[in-house]
Write a structure and sequence with these properties.
Layout: H1 15-25, H2 28-54, H3 58-82, H4 85-93, H5 97-102, H6 107-139, H7 144-168, H8 173-196, H9 208-230, H10 238-258, H11 266-283, H12 295-298, H13 301-311, H14 315-335, H15 341-366, H16 375-393, H17 402-410, H18 414-423, H19 431-472
Helix pairs in contact: 1-6, 2-3, 2-6, 3-7, 3-8, 4-7, 6-7, 6-9, 7-8, 7-9, 9-10, 9-11, 10-11, 10-14, 11-14, 11-15, 13-14, 14-15, 14-19, 15-16, 15-18, 15-19, 16-18, 17-19
Length: 481
Amino acid sequence: MTSAPANDYADWLPPVLVKELRQGLRTHVFAGLFALVQAGMVTVMAFRLLSTTFGNDDFSMSLQDNLEWCLIASVLLVILPARGLAAISSETKAQTAELITLSSISTARLVWGKWIALIGQTLLLVIAILPYYVLRYFFGGFDVALRLAALGWIVAMSLALTALFIALSPCGRASMLATALAVYVPVTGFTFSLAFSNYDTYSSGPSFLAMLLPILLAVPFLLTVACHRIAGHTEMFSPPLRLLGVLALIMAAIGELFDHASSDQVWIIMAAPAIVWCGIEAMMEPVKQVPGAFVNWTRRGAIGKLAGRLFYSGWCTGMVFVPMLFIATTAAILATEDPGLDEIFGAFVLSLQAAVTLMAPRAILELIPRFRWSFWGYWIVQGASLFWAFVAENAIGFRDFHEAAEAVLMALTPASSCIWMAGHNGSPDSPEWLLHLAIAGIIDVVVIAILIRRRRDEMQTIRRMEAESIALHPAPVRPNH
Protein backbone atom coordinates (compact mmCIF):
# COMPACT_ATOMS: atom_id res chain seq x y z
CA MET A 1 0.00 0.00 0.00
CA THR A 2 1.53 3.28 -1.08
CA SER A 3 1.04 6.49 0.84
CA ALA A 4 -0.04 9.70 -0.84
CA PRO A 5 2.84 11.93 -1.80
CA ALA A 6 3.47 14.82 0.54
CA ASN A 7 2.71 18.29 -0.66
CA ASP A 8 5.85 19.91 -2.07
CA TYR A 9 4.56 23.44 -1.32
CA ALA A 10 3.03 24.86 1.83
CA ASP A 11 -0.72 25.43 1.85
CA TRP A 12 -0.31 29.09 2.76
CA LEU A 13 1.58 29.92 -0.43
CA PRO A 14 -0.46 31.84 -3.06
CA PRO A 15 -1.82 29.58 -5.84
CA VAL A 16 -0.31 31.74 -8.58
CA LEU A 17 3.15 31.48 -7.00
CA VAL A 18 2.90 27.68 -6.69
CA LYS A 19 1.71 27.37 -10.29
CA GLU A 20 4.48 29.57 -11.67
CA LEU A 21 7.20 27.88 -9.61
CA ARG A 22 6.14 24.42 -10.73
CA GLN A 23 6.01 25.43 -14.37
CA GLY A 24 9.22 27.45 -14.23
CA LEU A 25 11.35 24.82 -12.53
CA ARG A 26 10.22 22.15 -15.01
CA THR A 27 11.12 24.12 -18.11
CA HIS A 28 14.10 23.18 -20.24
CA VAL A 29 15.36 26.78 -20.02
CA PHE A 30 15.84 26.70 -16.26
CA ALA A 31 17.33 23.19 -16.30
CA GLY A 32 19.72 24.17 -19.07
CA LEU A 33 20.77 27.35 -17.28
CA PHE A 34 21.37 25.48 -14.05
CA ALA A 35 23.57 22.95 -15.84
CA LEU A 36 25.36 25.74 -17.75
CA VAL A 37 26.16 27.65 -14.56
CA GLN A 38 27.47 24.52 -12.85
CA ALA A 39 29.62 23.57 -15.83
CA GLY A 40 30.94 27.11 -16.17
CA MET A 41 31.84 27.43 -12.49
CA VAL A 42 33.55 24.03 -12.51
CA THR A 43 35.59 25.11 -15.54
CA VAL A 44 36.60 28.38 -13.85
CA MET A 45 37.58 26.48 -10.69
CA ALA A 46 39.66 24.05 -12.74
CA PHE A 47 41.56 26.91 -14.40
CA ARG A 48 42.01 28.54 -10.99
CA LEU A 49 43.45 25.31 -9.57
CA LEU A 50 45.84 24.95 -12.50
CA SER A 51 46.96 28.59 -12.16
CA THR A 52 47.57 28.14 -8.45
CA THR A 53 49.51 24.91 -9.00
CA PHE A 54 51.76 26.01 -11.87
CA GLY A 55 52.23 29.68 -11.03
CA ASN A 56 50.22 32.74 -10.13
CA ASP A 57 49.84 34.64 -13.38
CA ASP A 58 48.05 37.96 -12.76
CA PHE A 59 46.75 38.15 -16.31
CA SER A 60 45.36 34.62 -16.10
CA MET A 61 43.69 35.39 -12.75
CA SER A 62 42.10 38.54 -14.13
CA LEU A 63 40.87 36.71 -17.22
CA GLN A 64 39.28 34.01 -15.07
CA ASP A 65 37.57 36.62 -12.90
CA ASN A 66 36.14 38.34 -15.96
CA LEU A 67 34.91 35.03 -17.40
CA GLU A 68 33.26 34.23 -14.07
CA TRP A 69 31.51 37.62 -13.95
CA CYS A 70 30.40 37.31 -17.58
CA LEU A 71 28.85 33.94 -16.86
CA ILE A 72 27.06 35.10 -13.72
CA ALA A 73 25.91 38.47 -15.06
CA SER A 74 24.75 37.10 -18.43
CA VAL A 75 22.53 34.58 -16.67
CA LEU A 76 21.25 36.87 -13.90
CA LEU A 77 20.94 40.07 -15.96
CA VAL A 78 20.08 38.83 -19.44
CA ILE A 79 18.51 35.40 -19.68
CA LEU A 80 16.49 35.06 -16.46
CA PRO A 81 15.01 38.61 -16.46
CA ALA A 82 14.10 38.26 -20.14
CA ARG A 83 11.77 35.39 -19.20
CA GLY A 84 9.52 38.05 -17.70
CA LEU A 85 8.56 39.12 -21.23
CA ALA A 86 6.31 36.07 -21.44
CA ALA A 87 4.89 36.42 -17.92
CA ILE A 88 1.72 38.32 -18.86
CA SER A 89 1.69 37.83 -22.63
CA SER A 90 1.55 34.03 -22.21
CA GLU A 91 -1.61 34.36 -20.12
CA THR A 92 -3.08 36.73 -22.71
CA LYS A 93 -2.32 34.39 -25.63
CA ALA A 94 -3.74 31.42 -23.75
CA GLN A 95 -6.80 33.54 -22.86
CA THR A 96 -6.44 32.61 -19.20
CA ALA A 97 -5.77 36.10 -17.79
CA GLU A 98 -9.46 37.01 -17.65
CA LEU A 99 -10.34 33.66 -16.08
CA ILE A 100 -7.75 34.25 -13.35
CA THR A 101 -8.92 37.79 -12.63
CA LEU A 102 -12.56 36.61 -12.52
CA SER A 103 -11.62 34.29 -9.67
CA SER A 104 -10.66 35.46 -6.20
CA ILE A 105 -7.11 36.20 -7.40
CA SER A 106 -6.57 39.92 -7.88
CA THR A 107 -4.42 41.43 -10.61
CA ALA A 108 -1.80 42.46 -8.06
CA ARG A 109 -1.50 38.92 -6.69
CA LEU A 110 -1.18 37.59 -10.24
CA VAL A 111 1.63 39.96 -11.19
CA TRP A 112 3.51 39.75 -7.89
CA GLY A 113 3.20 35.95 -7.91
CA LYS A 114 4.83 35.77 -11.34
CA TRP A 115 7.64 38.09 -10.25
CA ILE A 116 8.33 36.14 -7.03
CA ALA A 117 8.38 32.88 -9.01
CA LEU A 118 11.00 34.26 -11.41
CA ILE A 119 13.02 35.67 -8.54
CA GLY A 120 12.84 32.31 -6.77
CA GLN A 121 14.48 30.68 -9.78
CA THR A 122 17.13 33.41 -9.79
CA LEU A 123 17.91 32.87 -6.11
CA LEU A 124 18.21 29.11 -6.64
CA LEU A 125 20.95 29.73 -9.20
CA VAL A 126 22.65 32.20 -6.85
CA ILE A 127 22.60 29.68 -4.00
CA ALA A 128 24.15 27.11 -6.34
CA ILE A 129 27.03 29.50 -6.99
CA LEU A 130 27.92 30.15 -3.33
CA PRO A 131 29.77 26.82 -2.71
CA TYR A 132 32.27 27.76 -5.41
CA TYR A 133 32.98 31.00 -3.56
CA VAL A 134 33.85 28.96 -0.46
CA LEU A 135 36.23 26.89 -2.60
CA ARG A 136 37.78 30.03 -4.06
CA TYR A 137 38.42 31.32 -0.54
CA PHE A 138 40.69 28.35 0.24
CA PHE A 139 42.69 29.00 -2.93
CA GLY A 140 43.68 32.38 -1.46
CA GLY A 141 43.64 35.89 -2.90
CA PHE A 142 39.86 36.06 -2.73
CA ASP A 143 37.99 38.83 -0.90
CA VAL A 144 34.76 37.09 0.12
CA ALA A 145 33.01 40.22 1.41
CA LEU A 146 33.75 42.21 -1.74
CA ARG A 147 32.69 39.41 -4.08
CA LEU A 148 29.46 38.80 -2.15
CA ALA A 149 28.74 42.54 -2.27
CA ALA A 150 29.23 42.56 -6.06
CA LEU A 151 27.08 39.44 -6.42
CA GLY A 152 24.41 41.03 -4.23
CA TRP A 153 24.43 44.13 -6.45
CA ILE A 154 23.92 42.01 -9.56
CA VAL A 155 21.07 40.14 -7.85
CA ALA A 156 19.46 43.47 -6.90
CA MET A 157 19.68 44.63 -10.50
CA SER A 158 18.19 41.31 -11.60
CA LEU A 159 15.17 41.97 -9.34
CA ALA A 160 14.57 45.34 -11.00
CA LEU A 161 15.16 44.09 -14.56
CA THR A 162 12.77 41.19 -14.03
CA ALA A 163 10.12 43.66 -12.89
CA LEU A 164 10.87 45.80 -15.97
CA PHE A 165 10.28 42.95 -18.39
CA ILE A 166 7.09 41.91 -16.61
CA ALA A 167 5.89 45.51 -16.98
CA LEU A 168 6.72 45.33 -20.71
CA SER A 169 5.03 41.95 -21.14
CA PRO A 170 1.50 43.31 -21.86
CA CYS A 171 2.88 45.73 -24.48
CA GLY A 172 3.47 45.05 -28.14
CA ARG A 173 6.75 43.65 -29.39
CA ALA A 174 7.94 46.96 -30.81
CA SER A 175 7.27 48.75 -27.53
CA MET A 176 9.04 46.02 -25.59
CA LEU A 177 12.11 46.19 -27.82
CA ALA A 178 12.35 50.00 -27.77
CA THR A 179 11.98 50.30 -24.01
CA ALA A 180 14.26 47.36 -23.32
CA LEU A 181 17.06 48.84 -25.40
CA ALA A 182 16.56 52.30 -23.85
CA VAL A 183 16.75 51.05 -20.26
CA TYR A 184 18.32 47.62 -20.35
CA VAL A 185 21.60 48.39 -22.13
CA PRO A 186 22.84 51.26 -19.92
CA VAL A 187 21.72 49.53 -16.71
CA THR A 188 23.44 46.26 -17.50
CA GLY A 189 26.52 48.09 -18.80
CA PHE A 190 26.80 50.01 -15.54
CA THR A 191 26.39 46.82 -13.53
CA PHE A 192 29.00 44.94 -15.56
CA SER A 193 31.52 47.74 -15.11
CA LEU A 194 30.70 48.02 -11.41
CA ALA A 195 31.27 44.31 -10.88
CA PHE A 196 34.47 44.16 -12.94
CA SER A 197 36.01 47.20 -11.25
CA ASN A 198 35.25 45.91 -7.74
CA TYR A 199 33.83 49.34 -6.87
CA ASP A 200 37.26 51.01 -7.15
CA THR A 201 36.25 53.61 -9.72
CA TYR A 202 33.00 54.47 -7.96
CA SER A 203 34.38 55.31 -4.54
CA SER A 204 33.88 59.05 -5.12
CA GLY A 205 30.46 58.82 -6.74
CA PRO A 206 27.01 58.34 -5.25
CA SER A 207 26.73 56.47 -1.98
CA PHE A 208 25.56 52.87 -1.94
CA LEU A 209 22.17 53.90 -0.55
CA ALA A 210 21.72 56.47 -3.33
CA MET A 211 22.42 53.80 -5.96
CA LEU A 212 20.08 51.40 -4.17
CA LEU A 213 17.17 53.86 -4.25
CA PRO A 214 16.24 53.24 -7.94
CA ILE A 215 16.12 49.49 -7.28
CA LEU A 216 13.93 49.87 -4.20
CA LEU A 217 11.56 52.03 -6.21
CA ALA A 218 11.77 50.12 -9.49
CA VAL A 219 10.33 46.80 -8.29
CA PRO A 220 7.01 48.02 -6.81
CA PHE A 221 6.71 50.78 -9.41
CA LEU A 222 7.20 48.54 -12.45
CA LEU A 223 4.98 45.79 -11.07
CA THR A 224 2.27 48.38 -10.41
CA VAL A 225 2.66 49.50 -14.04
CA ALA A 226 2.12 45.87 -15.10
CA CYS A 227 -1.01 45.69 -12.91
CA HIS A 228 -2.18 48.96 -14.44
CA ARG A 229 -1.86 47.50 -17.95
CA ILE A 230 -4.03 44.43 -17.31
CA ALA A 231 -6.28 45.73 -14.53
CA GLY A 232 -9.90 44.64 -14.45
CA HIS A 233 -12.77 47.05 -14.97
CA THR A 234 -13.27 47.68 -11.26
CA GLU A 235 -9.56 47.88 -10.35
CA MET A 236 -7.81 51.25 -10.28
CA PHE A 237 -4.01 51.23 -10.05
CA SER A 238 -3.50 54.94 -10.72
CA PRO A 239 -3.53 55.81 -6.97
CA PRO A 240 -0.71 53.40 -5.97
CA LEU A 241 1.27 54.35 -9.06
CA ARG A 242 1.09 58.06 -8.26
CA LEU A 243 1.72 57.44 -4.56
CA LEU A 244 4.91 55.62 -5.52
CA GLY A 245 5.97 58.71 -7.46
CA VAL A 246 5.35 60.81 -4.34
CA LEU A 247 7.24 58.22 -2.25
CA ALA A 248 10.20 58.46 -4.64
CA LEU A 249 10.26 62.22 -4.11
CA ILE A 250 10.04 61.89 -0.31
CA MET A 251 12.85 59.33 -0.17
CA ALA A 252 15.02 61.47 -2.44
CA ALA A 253 14.39 64.56 -0.30
CA ILE A 254 15.32 62.68 2.89
CA GLY A 255 18.46 61.35 1.20
CA GLU A 256 19.48 64.85 0.08
CA LEU A 257 19.12 66.17 3.62
CA PHE A 258 21.01 63.42 5.46
CA ASP A 259 23.45 61.89 2.95
CA HIS A 260 26.32 64.37 2.93
CA ALA A 261 28.74 61.88 1.36
CA SER A 262 27.07 61.98 -2.05
CA SER A 263 27.25 64.90 -4.43
CA ASP A 264 24.45 67.46 -4.57
CA GLN A 265 21.11 66.42 -6.07
CA VAL A 266 22.27 62.85 -6.73
CA TRP A 267 19.29 61.47 -4.81
CA ILE A 268 16.89 63.55 -6.91
CA ILE A 269 18.60 62.31 -10.07
CA MET A 270 18.23 58.69 -8.93
CA ALA A 271 14.51 59.20 -8.22
CA ALA A 272 13.86 61.23 -11.40
CA PRO A 273 13.01 58.22 -13.67
CA ALA A 274 10.21 57.12 -11.33
CA ILE A 275 8.89 60.68 -11.04
CA VAL A 276 8.93 61.31 -14.80
CA TRP A 277 7.45 57.91 -15.65
CA CYS A 278 4.72 58.52 -13.07
CA GLY A 279 3.91 61.81 -14.81
CA ILE A 280 3.78 60.20 -18.25
CA GLU A 281 1.48 57.44 -17.03
CA ALA A 282 -0.78 60.05 -15.43
CA MET A 283 -1.14 61.91 -18.73
CA MET A 284 -1.89 58.78 -20.79
CA GLU A 285 -4.68 57.29 -18.69
CA PRO A 286 -8.35 57.18 -19.67
CA VAL A 287 -11.02 57.64 -17.03
CA LYS A 288 -12.37 54.41 -15.55
CA GLN A 289 -16.01 54.36 -16.60
CA VAL A 290 -17.09 51.75 -14.05
CA PRO A 291 -18.76 52.94 -10.83
CA GLY A 292 -17.22 50.09 -8.84
CA ALA A 293 -13.74 51.56 -9.35
CA PHE A 294 -14.74 54.66 -7.34
CA VAL A 295 -16.30 52.92 -4.34
CA ASN A 296 -13.27 53.09 -2.05
CA TRP A 297 -13.07 56.84 -2.62
CA THR A 298 -16.72 57.91 -2.52
CA ARG A 299 -17.30 56.05 0.74
CA ARG A 300 -14.92 58.47 2.43
CA GLY A 301 -17.14 61.40 1.58
CA ALA A 302 -15.84 64.81 0.58
CA ILE A 303 -12.27 63.99 1.64
CA GLY A 304 -12.19 60.93 -0.60
CA LYS A 305 -13.57 62.88 -3.57
CA LEU A 306 -11.05 65.67 -3.01
CA ALA A 307 -8.16 63.22 -2.88
CA GLY A 308 -9.56 61.55 -5.98
CA ARG A 309 -9.07 64.76 -7.93
CA LEU A 310 -5.34 63.98 -7.65
CA PHE A 311 -5.34 60.18 -7.76
CA TYR A 312 -8.30 59.07 -9.89
CA SER A 313 -7.45 57.30 -13.11
CA GLY A 314 -7.48 59.71 -16.04
CA TRP A 315 -5.32 62.42 -17.56
CA CYS A 316 -7.77 65.05 -16.33
CA THR A 317 -6.61 64.39 -12.74
CA GLY A 318 -3.04 63.89 -13.95
CA MET A 319 -3.15 67.43 -15.29
CA VAL A 320 -3.34 68.62 -11.67
CA PHE A 321 -1.10 65.94 -10.19
CA VAL A 322 1.89 66.40 -12.54
CA PRO A 323 2.52 70.14 -11.88
CA MET A 324 2.16 69.60 -8.13
CA LEU A 325 4.65 66.71 -8.24
CA PHE A 326 7.20 68.75 -10.21
CA ILE A 327 6.80 71.81 -7.98
CA ALA A 328 7.34 69.60 -4.93
CA THR A 329 10.47 68.14 -6.57
CA THR A 330 11.85 71.64 -7.15
CA ALA A 331 11.09 72.58 -3.54
CA ALA A 332 12.98 69.49 -2.37
CA ILE A 333 16.01 70.52 -4.45
CA LEU A 334 15.97 74.12 -3.21
CA ALA A 335 15.60 72.99 0.42
CA THR A 336 19.15 71.58 0.31
CA GLU A 337 20.67 74.80 -1.06
CA ASP A 338 20.78 78.49 -0.24
CA PRO A 339 19.42 80.07 -3.43
CA GLY A 340 18.62 83.69 -4.12
CA LEU A 341 15.26 85.01 -5.23
CA ASP A 342 16.21 84.94 -8.90
CA GLU A 343 17.31 81.31 -8.63
CA ILE A 344 14.12 80.35 -6.81
CA PHE A 345 12.00 82.05 -9.48
CA GLY A 346 13.93 80.40 -12.30
CA ALA A 347 13.74 76.96 -10.65
CA PHE A 348 9.97 77.08 -10.22
CA VAL A 349 9.47 78.36 -13.76
CA LEU A 350 11.59 75.44 -14.98
CA SER A 351 9.52 72.97 -12.93
CA LEU A 352 6.28 74.30 -14.43
CA GLN A 353 7.78 74.14 -17.89
CA ALA A 354 8.83 70.52 -17.28
CA ALA A 355 5.25 69.72 -16.26
CA VAL A 356 3.91 71.35 -19.44
CA THR A 357 6.45 69.33 -21.42
CA LEU A 358 4.83 66.12 -20.20
CA MET A 359 1.32 67.50 -20.82
CA ALA A 360 1.89 68.96 -24.31
CA PRO A 361 1.65 65.64 -26.24
CA ARG A 362 -1.65 64.99 -24.49
CA ALA A 363 -3.04 68.24 -25.94
CA ILE A 364 -2.00 67.25 -29.46
CA LEU A 365 -3.30 63.68 -29.13
CA GLU A 366 -6.66 65.02 -27.96
CA LEU A 367 -6.96 66.67 -31.38
CA ILE A 368 -6.26 63.35 -33.16
CA PRO A 369 -8.88 60.85 -31.91
CA ARG A 370 -7.30 57.89 -33.71
CA PHE A 371 -4.08 58.18 -31.69
CA ARG A 372 -5.65 59.50 -28.50
CA TRP A 373 -4.38 56.68 -26.25
CA SER A 374 -1.33 55.65 -28.27
CA PHE A 375 1.94 55.64 -26.35
CA TRP A 376 3.72 55.62 -29.68
CA GLY A 377 1.85 58.79 -30.59
CA TYR A 378 2.95 60.36 -27.32
CA TRP A 379 6.61 59.56 -27.94
CA ILE A 380 6.45 60.65 -31.58
CA VAL A 381 5.18 64.07 -30.50
CA GLN A 382 7.75 64.28 -27.73
CA GLY A 383 10.51 63.10 -30.08
CA ALA A 384 9.57 65.73 -32.68
CA SER A 385 9.83 68.40 -30.00
CA LEU A 386 13.25 67.14 -28.93
CA PHE A 387 14.38 67.03 -32.55
CA TRP A 388 13.33 70.65 -32.93
CA ALA A 389 15.40 71.47 -29.83
CA PHE A 390 18.44 69.90 -31.53
CA VAL A 391 17.83 71.82 -34.76
CA ALA A 392 17.22 75.13 -32.99
CA GLU A 393 20.25 74.80 -30.76
CA ASN A 394 22.52 74.14 -33.72
CA ALA A 395 21.00 76.64 -36.15
CA ILE A 396 23.64 78.65 -38.01
CA GLY A 397 21.54 81.13 -39.95
CA PHE A 398 21.49 83.85 -37.26
CA ARG A 399 25.12 84.34 -36.30
CA ASP A 400 24.81 88.11 -35.80
CA PHE A 401 22.17 87.77 -33.08
CA HIS A 402 22.67 84.12 -32.10
CA GLU A 403 21.57 84.33 -28.46
CA ALA A 404 18.26 86.08 -29.18
CA ALA A 405 17.51 83.81 -32.14
CA GLU A 406 18.23 80.70 -30.09
CA ALA A 407 15.98 81.99 -27.29
CA VAL A 408 13.13 82.47 -29.77
CA LEU A 409 13.55 79.17 -31.61
CA MET A 410 13.91 77.12 -28.42
CA ALA A 411 10.69 78.63 -27.03
CA LEU A 412 8.51 77.22 -29.79
CA THR A 413 7.98 73.82 -28.12
CA PRO A 414 7.70 73.03 -24.39
CA ALA A 415 10.44 70.37 -24.49
CA SER A 416 12.97 72.65 -26.23
CA SER A 417 12.02 75.47 -23.87
CA CYS A 418 12.64 73.22 -20.89
CA ILE A 419 16.08 72.32 -22.25
CA TRP A 420 16.93 75.99 -22.87
CA MET A 421 15.84 77.03 -19.36
CA ALA A 422 17.88 74.23 -17.79
CA GLY A 423 20.98 75.34 -19.68
CA HIS A 424 20.58 79.10 -19.12
CA ASN A 425 20.58 80.03 -15.47
CA GLY A 426 20.49 83.75 -16.15
CA SER A 427 18.43 86.12 -14.07
CA PRO A 428 14.95 87.27 -15.17
CA ASP A 429 16.53 90.65 -16.01
CA SER A 430 18.28 89.10 -19.01
CA PRO A 431 16.62 90.25 -22.30
CA GLU A 432 17.01 86.82 -23.88
CA TRP A 433 15.50 85.15 -20.81
CA LEU A 434 12.51 87.50 -20.77
CA LEU A 435 11.98 87.08 -24.53
CA HIS A 436 12.11 83.32 -24.23
CA LEU A 437 9.76 83.36 -21.22
CA ALA A 438 7.19 85.48 -23.07
CA ILE A 439 7.08 83.25 -26.17
CA ALA A 440 7.13 80.01 -24.16
CA GLY A 441 4.35 81.39 -21.94
CA ILE A 442 2.11 81.93 -24.97
CA ILE A 443 2.74 78.36 -26.17
CA ASP A 444 2.04 77.00 -22.69
CA VAL A 445 -1.23 78.94 -22.44
CA VAL A 446 -2.38 77.43 -25.76
CA VAL A 447 -1.52 73.91 -24.55
CA ILE A 448 -3.27 74.38 -21.22
CA ALA A 449 -6.32 75.95 -22.90
CA ILE A 450 -6.74 72.89 -25.14
CA LEU A 451 -6.43 70.58 -22.16
CA ILE A 452 -8.87 72.56 -20.01
CA ARG A 453 -11.44 72.54 -22.79
CA ARG A 454 -11.15 68.76 -23.18
CA ARG A 455 -10.93 68.24 -19.43
CA ARG A 456 -14.52 69.34 -18.85
CA ASP A 457 -15.94 66.23 -20.51
CA GLU A 458 -13.59 63.98 -18.56
CA MET A 459 -14.52 65.58 -15.24
CA GLN A 460 -18.20 65.20 -16.05
CA THR A 461 -17.58 61.50 -16.54
CA ILE A 462 -15.86 61.30 -13.16
CA ARG A 463 -18.74 63.09 -11.42
CA ARG A 464 -21.21 60.73 -13.06
CA MET A 465 -19.21 57.71 -11.95
CA GLU A 466 -19.05 59.09 -8.41
CA ALA A 467 -22.81 59.60 -8.32
CA GLU A 468 -23.50 56.11 -9.66
CA SER A 469 -20.99 54.64 -7.21
CA ILE A 470 -22.76 56.27 -4.28
CA ALA A 471 -26.15 55.07 -5.56
CA LEU A 472 -25.00 51.49 -6.13
CA HIS A 473 -22.73 51.20 -3.11
CA PRO A 474 -23.98 53.55 -0.38
CA ALA A 475 -21.82 54.08 2.66
CA PRO A 476 -22.81 51.91 5.62
CA VAL A 477 -24.94 53.68 8.21
CA ARG A 478 -23.58 53.54 11.74
CA PRO A 479 -26.22 52.66 14.33
CA ASN A 480 -26.96 55.25 17.00
CA HIS A 481 -26.36 54.10 20.55
